[in-house]
Amino acid sequence: xxxxxxxxxxxxxxxxxxxxxxxxxxxxxxxxxxxxxxxxxxxxxxxxxxxxxxxxxxxxxxxxxxxxxxxxxxxxxxxxxxxxxxxxxxxxxxxxxxxxxxxxxxxxxxxxxxxxxxxxxxxxxxxxxxxxxxxxxxxxxxxxxxxxxxxxxxxxxxxxxxxxxxxxxxxxxxxxxxxxxxxxxxxxxxxxxxxxxxxxxxxxxxxxxxxxxxxxxxxxxxxxxxxxxxxxxxxxxxxxxxxxxxxxxxxxxxxxx
Amino acid sequence: xxxxxxxxxxxxxxxxxxxxxxxxxxxxxxxxxxxxxxxxxxxxxxxxxxxxxxxxxxxxxxxxxxxxxxxxxxxxxxxxxxxxxxxxxxxxxxxxxxxxxxxxxxxxxxxxxxxxxxxxxxxxxxxxxxxxxxxxxxxxxxxxxxxxxxxxxxxxxxxxxxxxxxxxxxxxxxxxxxxxxxxxxxxxxxxxxxxxxxxxxxxxxxxxxxxxxxxxxxxxxxxxxxxxxxxxxxxxxxxxxxxxxxxxxxxxxxxxxxxx
Lengths: 257, 260
What we know:
The structure holds 2 protein chains of 2 kinds.
Chain A: H1 17-40, H2 50-58, H3 62-92, H4 94-109, H5 112-122, H6 126-151, H7 155-163, H8 168-204, H9 211-220, H10 224-252
Chain B: E1 7-17, E2 24-35, E3 40-45, H1 51-59, E4 66-71, E5 87-90, H2 102-106, H3 108-112, H4 117-130, H5 146-159, E6 164-168, H6 176-193, E7 196-201, H7 204-210, E8 213-217, E9 223-228, H8 237-250, H9 255-259
Parallel strand pairs in B: 3-7, 3-8, 5-6, 6-7
Antiparallel strand pairs in B: 1-2, 1-4, 8-9
Helix pairs in contact in B: 4-5, 5-6
């Protein structure tokens, strides 16, 4: 009885040659443009050289990075826990689903800017405002993704599980939760990207710390080099978080063929 | 080993309403059947005759529209939790959880009934060993062949030491050699365990090979014949097979079945 050949999964983090080449080409084009800008009628500050951007990156304040990171992770964890709990409740109760589903759709249709304005008008505390905006944007995504995943758990597996007469908690812990783990990871990756973008906008309004605040300061100082430096940090942060999630995913989903 | 319970099916009727047309479909129409403790009964019938509905009703996943199934005097539907650890099932497909190893799949029902972890492992390993899977306890389902996966499913059913074993077309999707081998193993284990076993199948050879009794279902699970296989010498199995086939085709009991 031989084991079927085990297929190795693709490495989680990789930097293919094409990626490096395309980044290098972009960097060279940018550098050339920064040197040619005076001759093209572009103000010199608009296209800073890579050296200048690198100089600004050296003075990046780690506290602002840490604050933004903490806001993103904190809000994502809260959004995930509450989104998953709501999804489980909606899966169990059709009545609850019938009432909540339209509200969720409305919430998801509201633009981020509107949420930021509501937050500014409703809440006095900056942290609460940012947390609120991140939660109303990311929470429904977690909810809808996990609810859909629960509904897509094969009927055959649900029937098998029910035939052994589990309690409601066992049914969720032993079947539904493990079955939706792949979707949960996908949802996390989508929401990390969403949260990084949203937190920056939220921090632009009223925050005195964080990357969004630093971007706002850079804009007031007409410092494109600073905007560039902070943007690179944001993108790096996004890749870092996605990479971390991908590593956990790789570890937890080893069972996948 | 637990004491097997008698099963009584009285005036069982199950009607489904079709979602699109709203029409009623009678899946089971007033079925009466008694199954003695420790009996191995095969239920045969053509596709769509209500066998699988009967299976769902036996497990307690569906409520009867009328009549009742009583196992030791209790309904598997109304007294759902009373049958925890007492009924185990083997389905047509293995229905293993893909994120669990063979061992973890086999011990799943033991986890659900709160068996201590060390005992779960011990019992699940013992059953996997008996089914020839001692080398593959840490393999995931996708690493196993179809026959091996079904063995894990059988180990999962037996691990809980049930009073009633239900198998729904459990070997129908396997190749003939593997199916025959697994059928034999299943039968041996079922007899050794002393559980009442109900095997639902559309394969007559399987029904004859496995059952002490064969219940032949017509349309809407009408009981066309209730055959005690012991009354048929092995030399007459070809005639028995032919008689069941004719019964199914004509939807009337063949005279040869009534004669014994």
